[in-house]
Design a protein that fits this description.
This protein is α/β, with parallel strands linked by helices. The protein has a single domain, classed as Rossmann fold (3-Layer(aba) Sandwich). The chain contains 7 helices and 8 strands. Strands 3-2-1-4-5-6-7-8 form an 8-stranded mixed β-sheet, with helices on both faces. Helix 4 links the parallel strand 4 and strand 5 (about 140-145). The longest helix has 26 residues, at about 105-130. This is SDR family oxidoreductase. Keywords: NADP, Oxidoreductase. InterPro entries: CBR1-like, NAD(P)-bd_dom_sf, SDR_fam.
Length: about 240
């Protein structure tokens, strides 16, 4: 059995996912970078290897069952366990930052967003649970968003009033519910499950108008991935602060 911690980061070929893998690798964690295209994953892993990080790239479209199962098998063959799962992969409607899209949301838009942001994360976690249960300190981090907070969105003077896009926000609220229920379910195995709000980050999705640099946006995920046995579970965090569900 390998002594180092093993982490899988989905959507890791760019943005917050890549930076999360980088920061974990700098903490002596072996990182597996997953992307829809194998070439993208391997290229991202190669960049980290140049920095002295033990990194591996795998193909993983989390909406595809065959690729979820293949990823689990690859990790088992290479490492025999998984210590950290970062459910980072996510998509958003193209017009999300331009206008609110709610009652007019099409079935296709709902299907596109929920397949990745919610169902993909749930089913991948299920496929990897046997490997996470082999860890002495299993950690699952679900990349959520403040827009998925019912408390914040329902405020009369909500700071996120400009970001009310039903498909995306609802997918993150659903992911938060998954965090709460899964944390309770896995308590007996010592596996901690938390949601991370990275903030509004300067990524392809967040746009250049965002407030935070990518390195800052990855910090919450990394902190939750490396919490000790006394750390939280079933919580929603941003940079060390608890967010209301």
């Amino acid at each position: 059995m390998i002594n180092k911690k093993i982490a899988l980061v989905t959507g890791a070929n760019r943005g917050i996912g890549f930076e999360t893998a980088k920061q974990l690798g700098e903490q002596n964690v072996i990182v597996v970078l997953a992307a829809r295209k194998l070439a993208d994953a391997e290229q991202a892993a190669a960049k980290l290897k140049l920095l002295g990080i033990d990194a591996h790239g795998i193909q993983l479209d989390i909406t595809r069952e065959s690729e979820r199962l293949a990823a689990a098998q690859t990790i088992e063959d290479l490492f025999g366990k998984l210590d950290i799962l970062i459910n980072n992969a996510g998509v958003a409607p193209k017009d999300m930052l331009k206008k609110s899209v709610n009652i007019q949301t099409t079935p296709e838009d709902f299907d596109w967003v929920f397949k990745t942001n919610f169902f993909g994360a749930v089913h991948l976690t299920s496929a990897l649970l046997p490997l996470l249960k082999k860890s002495d300190s299993g950690r699952i981090v679900n990349l959520s968003s403040g827009v998925g907070s019912l408390s914040i969105q329902s405020m009369a003077d909500s700071p996120l009033a400009a970001f009310r896009t039903l498909s995306y926000n609802a997918s993150k609220a659903s992911l938060n519910m998954f965090t709460i229920l899964l944390a309770e379910e896995l308590k007996e195995f010592g596996i901690k499950v938390n949601s991370a709000h990275p903030g509004w980050v300067k990524t392809e999705m967040g746009s250049a108008d965002a407030q935070l640099e990518i390195a800052e946006g990855a910090k919450t995920s990394v902190e939750l991935a490396l919490i000790d046995d006394e750390g939280p579970s079933g919580k929603f965090y941003h940079l060390g602060e608890v967010i209301s569900w």
